[in-house]
Each structure stands twice: as structure tokens, then as C-alpha cells.
Amino acid sequence: MPIATVNPATGQTLKTFEAHTAEQVERILARAHATNGALAATTFAQRGAWMRRAADLLDAEAAELAALIATEMGKTLPTAAYEVAKSARGMRHYAEHAEAYLADERPVPPAEVGASDARVVYQPLGTILAVMPWNYPFWQVIRFAAPALMAGNTALLKHASSVPQCALYLGELFTRAGFPAGAFQTLLLEAARTTRLLDDPRVRAVTLTGSVGAGAAVAEAAGRNIKKSVLELGGTDVFIVLPSADVAKAAEAGVASRTQNSGQSCIAAKRFYVHEAVYAEFEERFVAGMAAQKAGDPFAADTSFGPLATEQGRADAHALVEDARSKGATVRTGGAVPDGPGWFYPATVLTGVTPRMRIYREECFGPVACLYPVRDLAEAVERANDSPFGLSSSVWTSDPDEITALAARIEAGAVFVNGNTASFPQLPFGGIKDSGYGRELSGFGIREFVNVKTVWVS
């Protein structure tokens, strides 16, 4: 895939970029490696001051950055502005809390282990490679960069080829804020060259957000080189509605979840399991809500959601819909590629989906929902867990026993009750099964890329 800004609302190529040469990559990597000691020697207070300054720069340049995000990957201007603001909040969170997250610990009285002192310390690993996707071109990067830098690591960003201007901005942001020049740098690389970086001993670990295939390739390279990896690989998140739920509120939330970011969100609800007692009401409200969503110009005030980010992404989403339709599924709304320029796709609802259809198990990265009736909670859980993925889930009920059962039995990295899945700097984020391993955000996230060292003193 070429490294280029292609406006997904028009299909026009606005700007192209040359990939870094082997010599340029070497200079960038050498600079990161040379900066490790200097950055690790700084205090949390100093790194925190730089991080706050970087957050201030995001806030000051928010309008320009929101327009850039909307242009490069197609999300609406308000949601792009929200992403920039959320990124700044995440940076300030780690500026404030990193020292406490990584404070020395004394898990047992020293005498229990025959010592005068026994403690656990957290120290940076060195240079970390981040392979990031286009769907949240700032937030996905910041939720790695803020904890990694505050822990004292240096970082290399290999961003998606379709958001090069976002990548280049981020590559300069932290240096502008005061971090040493080699602390955070962007690499413009084709995907095929990325895994080779893990063969270099100066790269100590890797984190990736992306497809299962990309994650497997990175994990294989990391494993071959005995290097730590963290993977977030998407999901087919469930949305369960039981009879005690506020059905109108649940349907409204379901529409918002499935169409957020034009459906290009790993934590968007994709499989809707609704108790048969309230299925008819939910279906009517949900289908009507989806049909009312307008896909349009990301800069227009009346647009519900923008185009899909890439032409291939739209083709992939439509192929899943057509496969389901050809095998007997009913398209309740949407399901047709519109005429005209750009990579738009309507909000779509499928019913009658069966295991014979690809979309039953595959992740659809577009505004397409699959709606299923279920007899009871047990069937909802069984079908929810019948998936290779396990990222998050959203469940709707006012019954305390049902909340307890769902929280315990759903196989996922998170269960959100009576609300849509979201990410917060204060809470860990990540999945199980094919959704990946490791955690981002919170204290768990910052501890992924540190050396957990025992210090024992006789």
C-alpha cells in the first residue's frame, strides 16, 4: 500500500510520501538507542512537565488536527476533535500518575525472605516499536506513547500508510514539547519491512493494534527474537439485551455503538443478542435508528458518520454483507454501495445470520450489525462466547443477578453494563483469544514495557 493521504470522501490522492530508506531507518534507530540512557535518567517530574506541554500543544492545535484526521481517514469533524481532546487528557493522566504506577513496592516484610530490604522496582526496557492503525490515528498512538515515555522508554512509531501526516505530526510532537530528540520518532515504512526491525537488538519490545494476520506476523518475529509483545487485534463484540433493560435506551446506544467511527472500531458492538420477549420492540427501534443515520461529508454538520477509510475496507465490508445475503440472510436496511465518489457505506442491519455465513465469525469493519433473538441469558452467553474473539461486550439489564452472571461468564477483556464499551486512561484495555494479549492504559498498561526487577539486600 502506498504511503499517501487519500481523501476517503472523494477518493482523491492529496499527497504522497516516500518510505524511509535503509540509511534513514538506521539513523532513526541509532538516535533512539543513543537517547535511552539520557531519558531513563530524567525524573518523573521532568518527563511529566514535557508530557503536559505536549498535551497543551494538542489542545492549541486541535482545530487543525481535527481537520487533518477527518481528511486522512474520514471521521466526522466533531469526533475527530473529541479524539484529539481525549488524547490530551490521556497524556495528562500519565503525567500525573506514572510515578505512582511505577513506585517501588515491598510485597512482603524483608525478614520473610531473609533480607534487611526486599523490594520490586520498575525500570524502562529501552526502545519500543509501536505498529498502529488508522482508525484512531491519534488516540491509538497516544495511549501507547504517553505511558511508554513516562516510564523512560524511547519509542518508534510505524503508523498506518494511509495516515502519514498524522504520523509525521506525532513524530515531532514530543520533541517540540521538550523530550530529547530521539525519544519518540516516526518511521515511514511499508508493512513488509516492519517485522525486520524486531531482528535488531536495539528494539527491545513491540506493541501492535491491527488485524489478526498482522498481529500473528509481529508476534512471530518477536517470539523468534525473544522480545515482549502486546497485541490488540480487534473483535466481534456482543451487545446483549435482556427483558429488564430499558429497550429504547439500549436500541439508541446500539445504533451509536455500531455507527461510531463509521463502524470502524474494534470495540463497536457487532453481534446483537436480544431476548425474544423484547426482540420485536428492539428490532423495530434499532432498524429505524440505523436507517436514519446519514453517511456523508465528514465536514458537514448534518452527517452522522463519514466514509470508510479505504476503498478496500468498503469492499471487504460489502463482501461480508453479500455473502450473508446470498446464503439467506435478510438485509433490513442498507447493504448497497452508493453511487458517486468516496468510500461511503450505509448503516446496515442483517437478520437471519447463520454459522454458514462469513460474518457470523469474521469481524466486519464497517457500519453493519447482525441481530439475533435468544431464548434466555444462557443462550445469550453461549452464543456470545461462540467466537474466536474476546475484546469487550455491552450488556443491558437491571437485574443484579443477571449482571453478576454476565460479568462472570462472558469471555472478554471487559463487560460494560447498561453502557457502550469505551476506553479510559484509568482502566485497563485489551482482550483474550484472537483479540490479543497484554493490556493498555491504567497501571497495567505502563507496566507492560518495564523491567520488573527484584532488589534483595542481605
TrEMBL record:
Keyword NADP: yes
Database matches in InterPro entries: Ald_DH/histidinol_DH (IPR016161), Ald_DH_C (IPR016163), Ald_DH_N (IPR016162), AldDh_AldH (IPR054988), Aldehyde_DH_dom (IPR015590), ALDH_GabD1-like (IPR044148), GABD/Sad-like (IPR047110)
Family to which this protein belongs: Belongs to the aldehyde dehydrogenase family.
Lineage: Bacteria, Bacillati, Actinomycetota, Actinomycetes, Micromonosporales
Protein name: NADP-dependent succinic semialdehyde dehydrogenase
NCBIfam families, alphabetized: AldDh_AldH_Clos
UniProt domain Aldehyde dehydrogenase: residue ranges: 3-455
Pfam families registered for this protein in UniProt: Aldedh (PF00171)
Source species of the chain: Phytohabitans houttuyneae
UniProt keyword Repeat, yes or no: no
